[in-house]
Amino acid sequence: MTDQHIHIEPIGFFHTNTKEKHRIPRQPDNDLGIHGYIQLHREHNFEQALQDLDSFSHIWIIFQFHQSHQWKPMVLPPRGKQKRGVFATRSPYRPNPIGLSVVSIVSIHGLCIEIAGTDLLDETPILDIKPYIPYADCISDANFGWLDTMEESHHIYNIGDNCFVKAQEIKEKEGVDIILHIKQLLRESPYPHPYRRIKKINEDMYELSIRTWRVMYTVLEQDESMIITIVSITH
């Protein structure tokens, strides 16, 4: 009988300011994703392995869901209210906690790869890197599976001047772009869900929790758009 165990070690780690699971987007996103860098290990000849990678605009990252310690055969995705088989989702609760994301390369310096648009947490172990090749990786006529049954809405944000001032104060004092985090967390839906720290205050008002900040907002559904008005940001 052959050995059924596979030994895999990280080739490096991803680093960013985002450390809490509830603050990351549920999928890679070029506009709302997380900015950070991969630091590869030294003394493994990875300098040679990186040659020519900077000729690509995007890469696949194979990584470990290092904060997921059990797997579930059925999971509740961030979109919808129905549980799905874990193999039909991107959930981190997998038999082997391995993730796959496509991200854009910002720059490469030595063993450091700066990337944008990720859905990775700080200290995520990186297992492998592969170039994204459009003719092989993009299937233009692929369907969306059960996601085809979900209604897709375009989000429009109205942010008052007082909220912009408060957001700037938070960015200057704590280095956190709270407006970006709001958009990341409401991307799938602005309504309460087990994966989102959202409470319905009354018929028109909702409260989103980000750390110790509280964001009050309203939602107006109009045609195929959701108009989200940020009313206040408090600490």
Explain this structure to me?
With 235 residues, this protein is mostly beta strands. It contains four helices and 13 strands. It is globular. It has a six-stranded antiparallel beta barrel with strand order 1-2-7-6-3-8. The protein has a five-stranded mixed β-sheet with strand order 9-13-12-11-10. The chain has a two-stranded antiparallel ribbon with strand order 4-5. A hairpin with a 2-residue loop joins strand 11 and strand 12. The mean pLDDT is 86. The chain has two domains: 126 residues, YaeB-like (Elongation Factor Tu (Ef-tu), domain 3, Beta Barrel), CATH 2.40.30.70; 83 residues, YaeB-like fold, CATH 3.30.2310. The longest helix is centred in the C-terminal third of the chain and has 14 residues.
Strand sequence of the main sheet, in spatial order?
1-2-7-6-3-8
The name CATH uses for the topology of the largest domain is Elongation Factor Tu (Ef-tu), domain 3
- The helix/strand series, from N terminus to C terminus, equals EEHEEEEEEHEHHEEEE
Mean pLDDT: 86
The helix count comes to 4
User: Which superfamily, in CATH terms, is the homologous superfamily of the largest domain?
Assistant: YaeB-like
Extended strand count: 13
Stretches with pLDDT under 50, minimum 5 residues: none
What's the architecture of the largest domain, going by CATH? Beta Barrel
Instruction: Quickly count the domains.
Output: 2
Shape verdict? globular
Q: Determine the N-to-C terminus distance.
A: 60 Å
- Specify the biggest β-sheet: 6 strands, antiparallel, barrel
**Structural class per helix/strand content?**
mainly beta
β content, as a range?
A: 35-45%
In CATH, what is the class of the largest domain?
A: Mainly Beta
Radius of gyration: 20 Å
